Structure formats: C-alpha cells, structure tokens
Amino acid sequence: MNQAVYSISDLAREFEISARSIRFYEEKGLIAPQRTVGNQRRYSLSDRYRLKWILRGKRFGYSLDEISRMLELIDSKTEAIDQIKVTIAYGEEKLQDIESHIEGLQKMRSEMLELKSRLLQRLTELEAKDQR
Amino acid sequence: MNQAVYSISDLAREFEISARSIRFYEEKGLIAPQRTVGNQRRYSLSDRYRLKWILRGKRFGYSLDEISRMLELIDSKTEAIDQIKVTIAYGEEKLQDIESHIEGLQKMRSEMLELKSRLLQRLTELEAKDQR
DNA sequence: AATATAGATAACGTTTACGTTAAGGTTATT
DNA sequence: AATAACCTTAACGTAAACGTTATCTATATT
Asked: Whole-model pTM above 0.85?
C-alpha cells in the first residue's frame, strides 16, 4: 500500500497556511496525525483530506467548532443503527444550511450584477456627454 | 414621502442582533444613521438595507472590512468617469469572489450528499441484517 | 409631572483563530 | 559526525467582533 505521508510543513506549503494553524486545528481536535518515534507529526492522505475540508469550511464562514462537528460526520464509522440515523439527520441539517448559504450568495450575486449594470449605465451616459 | 424610520432596537429586534452590534458597525463606518435632537439614532430604509447587506456578508465569511468596501461600492455616487471605472473593476472582482464561493459551497454540498448516501447504504444493510 | 422604558457614551472583558518568540530536540545531507 | 533544515512544546501577544456593565440622558406613557 503506497501510503503517502506528509510532514507539517509539506501541508503548510501546499495549502498556504502556517504550521501553527495546522497545530491549532489539532489542539481543537479537528485532526490527529500519527507521530514518528521522535514525536514529529506525520499526515496521511485522509488527514490531508480533512485539512482540505477544514479550510473550505472556514472560507465559507463556518467556525472551527461547526467544522469539527461536520468532520465527526465524515468519519462516523459506527454500526449502531440509531447512531447512524442521528448522523444522517445532522447531515441533512448541514445540507440545508449549505443550501441556504448558496441561496444567500446567489442573492448577493444578483444584487452585485444590478449594481454593476447601474454603474455601466452611468458610465456610458457620462462618456456620451463627454463626446460632445 | 412616507419615509420609514427605525430606532436602534427596532432594527436589533428585526434582525435578531444586539444594539451593541449595530453601534459597532457604525463605529467601523459601515452605517451612519441620522440623530434626533436628543442625539438618538434614527435609521432610514436605506440604512436598513445596508444593515441587511452587512449581515448577509458576515454570514458568508466576509469580514467587516471587506463588507465596508462592498458598501462603498453600493453607495458610490461619483460622476467621475475614472472613479466609476475603478468601482466597476472592484465590483467585478467581488463578483468573481462570490461566484467562487458559490462553487466551493456546491462542492461541499455534493460531498455532503455523497456522505449521506453512504450512510443510508450502511443503514439499509444493517436493517436487512437485523431482519433475519 | 412622574415614572418606565429606551438610548447614549465609554471602558473593560471575552472568544476565536491564529502570530510570534523562546528554548530546545529530530532528520536529512554532506 | 557535523551542520542545516525542520520539528517540538509552551507561553505570551494580537486583531476582530462583539458582550457586559456603569453612569447618565431622552422619550413615551399614565
């Protein structure tokens, strides 16, 4: 099994964040890499995937706490029917939330477009006046 | 002209935020209501609109600083051609940004959906096993 | 006019998400 | 084996975005 392994600065470089940030996410329990004999962090592919999720979540306004709960969802490995049901329910909640985020952003988008067309309008008017 | 006017707590109630927050946005220059003779804040419809924008921006991960710049764009009233061009350029930048936010969220959405279907799969398997 | 409710400023406190040293230990390279 | 490059924990610092509290003033209601 060709399991890629990354050091903390490998990931820091790749995602353009500080090693401090990555350690901070670990402090908060969002990620938990293996350690070498010398106690240095070694990240697997799935750790890398988690980190990607963390950064995506952050970009869209989710707090580390919320992201943490989403990650729990991601690595739910339980075989208990009731637990799975709870997890699915939580996932559906988050889906709703994400969808409402998308809607809100689309609203912002359309307002921005309106704004732009108003500005373009004014611009062409002024340029026409300039022509004379 | 039937100009609606709101007190600070009117808006706080409507948007479910604290009056402190609204005052804070004013401190940061994002909103600037009229004052009564007794120095109390009175918000117009357009102030209310700005506040809505502020909250929307915040929900989607924009900092008050970024939102501030977007608002400047909204109330740009300049007649200077060059200034308008600059404003349009900035608006286009923000549009791009919003669109990439939307894309990212859609990615999150599809991963969430995948996750959910995997969980549903496991659930039905377990329930089938339970049946026997 | 008196009282209740609401609003003002101002100062200090708090949480989140890191940045920045400091004082070392580990790994890789020559 | 020595040196550079990288890593560790730990502690303190910081910026953003408010919350909280105190003290005082305005407005609304009976």
From this structure: yes
